[in-house]
C-alpha cells in the first residue's frame, strides 16, 4: 500500500459560474497535465478526478500520493482558476470549503486510537491507517495535514522501533570481574545512615558520607577530564520555558516526564489571603484553591540539562577560531517524573549531574567525543576499576527525526556505558550510567547558530549522573573504603562521620 490523499471540496464563487463552464473544463483538463504535476516524477502528481458546477460554487475531487498533495493542489488550482474567472467572467472565488479530506497511511502495525487535533476519525484498515480530517482552507495553507501525517508516521515508526533490535549494538566490554559485595547499595546506604528518603517522590537526602562520594566523582571528572581538555564552566538555567523546548525538539514528546512550573497570577497578598487563612484554620494546604490562582505552565524544571545553554548562542554567528567550544554545567538538579520502580538511587525524580557540551565543525565534534571516550575509559578502568561495557544506541528522540541509525559510518548517535549490578544476579539487567552523544546539527540548526565560514555546525553532549555512578560503584565495591580501589581511595581521603540519632 502507498500513501494516498483524497479531497472533496468546492470553491465558493461570488456569482453563478455556469457561464464559465467551458473555460473551467478546459482549465481543469490542462491542469491535470501541468499545474498538478509540477515538482513530481512522471505519473506521480495530483489528479482531478471529478468536478461539477453549481449556482454558487465549483465542486471538485482530488487524489494524490506523496508528491503534489491534495491540499497543495487545491491551493494551486484556486490561484490559477481565480485569474481565469476574474479576467474573463468577472467572477471571484471567495474561499475553499472542504467536504471531506482523508489520508491513507501505510502501516504494518495497528495503532491505538488517539486524540489528534483536526482528526475527526482514525481507523485501522488492512495495510494501513485511515485518517479523516476536519480542516479548512486556513489549516491547509498552514500545512496542518502535513504535520498530522508526520505525527502519524512518527507513531508508526515508534511502534516499529520498539520491536527492533538494531538500536543497541555492543562496541566494547571489559572482562568479567569478581564482586564479593552482593547487596543493593541503596538499602546498604540506608542501613548505614548514608542517606534518607526525601519528602518528595523519587528524592533523597544525602548524608556526609554519600555526599563525599559524589564530590569525589566530581573531582575526578574535573581533574581527569574537564580541566585537561579545556572545558569551561558555565551556569545553565534550571527552569526551562516552552520556547527552549520547542527549538530543541523536546516539545515533541517531553510532557509525561517533566515537572511543570506555573507562576502565581499575582503576588498581591490580598489575592492569596483566602489560601493563607484556609491553612491557618485547617492546617491543610488547599491545593484545589491554589490551582485556581496560578497561571498556565510556562515550562518545566530542568529535564535534559543542555537545551537551556543554547540561549547563550542562539541567533549568533561564531568566529572560525572560536570553535570548538567546550563547556560544562554542574549548578543544580535535574528533574524527571520517572515511571516504574523508583526504590533506589539509580532511578530518581531529582538527580545531580555534570552536563558536558561541545560544539564545532563535524570533525571537531567527532574528535571531542573520542577524547571523552578515552578519558572515561581511563576513569572507569584505572580509578574506579569497575566492570562495564559500552554500546551504540539509537535514542528514540533522535530516531524520530531521522538523524541516525546504527549503520556503519553513521557517527550521529549515542554511546551508552553500562555496568553490571552484582546484587541483581549474573543474568540481571545492566545499568546505563554514562553516555556520550553526537547530535549532528540538531541544536545549532534549532537555535539558528552559524559559523563564520558557513561550514555546518554540529554539537555533542555527555551527562555524568552522580546517582548512577554511585549506584554502579557501590554495587560492585560496597560501602567499606578498605575494599575500594587504591586510586579512588587516594582521591576520597578520609571519609566523614555520619550523623547519629538516639
Walkthrough of the structure:
- The chain has helices spanning 21-33, 70-89, 137-141, 144-161, 185-191, 208-229, 242-248, 273-282, 287-293, 362-383, 396-399, 442-446, 466-477, 486-492, and strands at residues 4-13, 47-54, 57-64, 93-106, 119-125, 128-133, 168-173, 195-197, 204-206, 232-234, 239-241, 260-261, 299-301, 317-318, 325-329, 333-335, 350-361, 388-393, 413-419, 431-440, 450-451, 457-465.
- The chain is of the alpha+beta class.
- The strands form five sheets. Strands 7, 10, 15, 16, 17, 18, 19, 20 and 22 form a nine-stranded mixed beta sheet that branches. It has a six-stranded antiparallel beta sheet with strand order 2-3-1-4-6-5, with helices on one face. The protein has a three-stranded antiparallel beta sheet with strand order 11-13-12.
- A hairpin with a 6-residue loop joins β8 (195-197) and β9 (204-206).
- α6 crosses α10.
- The longest helix is centred in the middle third of the chain and has 22 residues, at 208-229.
- It starts with a strand and ends in a 10-residue tail after the last helix.
Amino acid at each position: 500500500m502507498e500513501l494516498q490523499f483524497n479531497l472533496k471540496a468546492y470553491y465558493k464563487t461570488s456569482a453563478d459560474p455556469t457561464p464559465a463552464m467551458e473555460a473551467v473544463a478546459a482549465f481543469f483538463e490542462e491542469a491535470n497535465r501541468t499545474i498538478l504535476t509540477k515538482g513530481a516524477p512522471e505519473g506521480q502528481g495530483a489528479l482531478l478526478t471529478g468536478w461539477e458546477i453549481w449556482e454558487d460554487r465549483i465542486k471538485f475531487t482530488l487524489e494524490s500520493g506523496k508528491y503534489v498533495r491534495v491540499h497543495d493542489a487545491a491551493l494551486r488550482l484556486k490561484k490559477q482558476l481565480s485569474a481565469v474567472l476574474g479576467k474573463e467572467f468577472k467572477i471571484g472565488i471567495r474561499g475553499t470549503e472542504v467536504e471531506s479530506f482523508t489520508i491513507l497511511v501505510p502501516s504494518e502495525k495497528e495503532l491505538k486510537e488517539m486524540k489528534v487535533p483536526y482528526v475527526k476519525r482514525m481507523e485501522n484498515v488492512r495495510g494501513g491507517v485511515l485518517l479523516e480530517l476536519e480542516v479548512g482552507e486556513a489549516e491547509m495553507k498552514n500545512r496542518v495535514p502535513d504535520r498530522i501525517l508526520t505525527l502519524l508516521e512518527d507513531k508508526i515508526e515508534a511502534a516499529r522501533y520498539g520491536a527492533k533490535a538494531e538500536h543497541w549494538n555492543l562496541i566494547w566490554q571489559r572482562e568479567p570481574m569478581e564482586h564479593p559485595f552482593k547487596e543493593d547499595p541503596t538499602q546498604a546506604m540506608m542501613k548505614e545512615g548514608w542517606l534518607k528518603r526525601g519528602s518528595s517522590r523519587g528524592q533523597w537526602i544525602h548524608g556526609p558520607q554519600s555526599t563525599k562520594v559524589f564530590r569525589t566523582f566530581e573531582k575526578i571528572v574535573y581533574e581527569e577530564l574537564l580541566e585537561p581538555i579545556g572545558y569551561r564552566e558555565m551556569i545553565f538555567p534550571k527552569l526551562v520555558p516552552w520556547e527552549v523546548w520547542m527549538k530543541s525538539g523536546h516539545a515533541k514528546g517531553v510532557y509525561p516526564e517533566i515537572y511543570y512550573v506555573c507562576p502565581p497570577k499575582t503576588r498581591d497578598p490580598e489575592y492569596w489571603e483566602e489560601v493563607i487563612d484556609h491553612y491557618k484554620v485547617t492546617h491543610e494546604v488547599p491545593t484545589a484553591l491554589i490551582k485556581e490562582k496560578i497561571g498556565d505552565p510556562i515550562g518545566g524544571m530542568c529535564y535534559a540539562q543542555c537545551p537551556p545553554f543554547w540561549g547563550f548562542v542562539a541567533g549568533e554567528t561564531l568566529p572560525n577560531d572560536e570553535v570548538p567550544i567546550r563547556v560544562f554545567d554542574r549548578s543544580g538538579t535535574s528533574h524527571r517524573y520517572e515511571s516504574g520502580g523508583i526504590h533506589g538511587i539509580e532511578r530518581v525524580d531529582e538527580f545531580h549531574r555534570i552536563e558536558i557540551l561541545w560544539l564545532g565543525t563535524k570533525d571537531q565534534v567527532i574528535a571531542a567525543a573520542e577524547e571523552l571516550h578515552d578519558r572515561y575509559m581511563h576513569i572507569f578502568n584505572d580509578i574506579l576499576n569497575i566492570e562495564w561495557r559500552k554500546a551504540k544506541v539509537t535514542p528514540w528522540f533522535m530516531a524520530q527525526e531521522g538523524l541516525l541509525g546504527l549503520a556503519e559510518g553513521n557517527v550521529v548517535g549515542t554511546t551508552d556505558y553500562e555496568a553490571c549490578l552484582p546484587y541483581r544476579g549474573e543474568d540481571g539487567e545492566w545499568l546505563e550510567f554514562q553516555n556520550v552523544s553526537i547530535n549532528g546539527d540538531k541544536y545549532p540548526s534549532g537555535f539558528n547558530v552559524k559559523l563564520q565560514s558557513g561550514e555546518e555546525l554540529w554539537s555533542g553532549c555527555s551527562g555524568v549522573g552522580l546517582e548512577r555512578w554511585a549506584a554502579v560503584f557501590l554495587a560492585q565495591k560496597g560501602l567499606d573504603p578498605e575494599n575500594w580501589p587504591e586510586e579512588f581511595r587516594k582521591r576520597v581521603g578520609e571519609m566523614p562521620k555520619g550523623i547519629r540519632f538516639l
